[in-house]
């Protein structure tokens, strides 16, 4: 979707910067396609001698933070941080049988590391929404038999601000994982949408510590 915005700068990119697109073919000479290579890839594990990483502290991602601790910056994400993030859903009690609904943007560590990474770690099913919709949220949960939802605090407030509908507790969601819910919204959310266990975590992409609230 965003490839058009890169068209102007593609010729000026450094040679060691690769651009990949989620298609089987591309009209841009310097853009690599991914779907055709996934289709052709073997199901066997990658041989050790072809692994690009031999150190858990080596960088795997750069995630640009919004500047909570200062100016926006690229936070270096190591393989160890990815693995720890991916264990978050498991730590809160999610299992391979869960169906996890993710509506948050994947350029944030919450959705990418904890959400997508957590689904891969568990072998769980991921329902990935292209854009958050407060009006479609619970109907999506019912449609896809969602059992775990991921949120940021404002998302829960948006849901509580929706007009009350009949049967709002008619869903299978048992666990909500995220951060930043105010205590009044927390209570209203549970009163309105049923016995969902809310598990919060607090951390920063560029930080080196994380708090997890298991007790509610």
What can you see in these coordinates?
It is a single chain. With 216 residues, this protein is an alpha/beta fold. The chain has two domains: 3-41, no CATH class; 87-212, 3-Layer(aba) Sandwich (Rossmann fold). It is 29% helix and 21% strand. The protein has eight helices and ten strands. The protein has helices at 3-6, 35-40, 79-86, 88-91, 109-122, 137-143, 153-160, 183-193; strands at residues 19-21, 31-33, 59-64, 74-78, 99-102, 125-128, 148-152, 175-179, 197-203, 210-213. The strands form three sheets. It has a six-stranded mixed sheet with strand order 6-5-7-8-9-10. A two-stranded parallel ribbon has the order 1-2. It has a two-stranded antiparallel sheet with strand order 3-4. A hairpin with a 6-residue loop joins β9 and β10 (210-213). α3 (79-86) packs across α5. The longest helix is centred in the middle third of the chain and has 14 residues, at 109-122. The two termini are 39 Å apart. The relative contact order is 0.11. The mean pLDDT is 90. It catalyses: tetracosanoate + ATP + CoA = tetracosanoyl-CoA + AMP + diphosphate; a very long-chain fatty acid + ATP + CoA = a very long-chain fatty acyl-CoA + AMP + diphosphate. One of its GO terms (molecular function) is long-chain fatty acid transmembrane transporter activity. Belongs to the ATP-dependent AMP-binding enzyme family. It comes from Scytalopus superciliaris. This is Long-chain-fatty-acid--CoA ligase.
């Amino acid at each position: 979707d965003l490839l058009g915005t890169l068209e102007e700068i593609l010729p000026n990119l450094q040679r060691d910067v690769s651009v990949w697109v989620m298609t089987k073919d591309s009209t841009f000479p310097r853009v690599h396609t991914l779907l055709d290579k996934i289709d052709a890839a073997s199901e066997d594990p990658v041989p050790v001698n072809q692994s690009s990483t031999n150190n858990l502290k080596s960088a795997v991602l750069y995630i640009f933070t919004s500047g909570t601790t200062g100016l926006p910056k690229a936070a270096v994400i190591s393989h160890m941080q990815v693995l720890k993030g991916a264990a978050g859903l498991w730590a809160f009690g999610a299992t391979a049988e869960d169906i996890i609904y993710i509506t948050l943007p994947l350029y944030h560590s919450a959705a990418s590391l904890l959400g997508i990474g957590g689904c891969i770690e568990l072998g769980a099913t991921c329902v990935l929404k292209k854009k958050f919709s407060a009006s479609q949220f619970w109907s999506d949960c019912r449609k896809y038999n969602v059992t775990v939802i991921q949120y940021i605090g404002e998302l829960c407030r948006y849901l509580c601000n929706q007009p009350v509908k009949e049967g709002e507790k008619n869903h299978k969601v048992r666990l909500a994982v995220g951060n930043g819910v105010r205590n009044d919204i927390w209570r209203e959310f549970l009163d309105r949408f049923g016995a969902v266990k809310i598990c919060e975590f607090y951390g920063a992409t560029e930080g080196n510590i994380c708090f997890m609230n298991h007790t509610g």
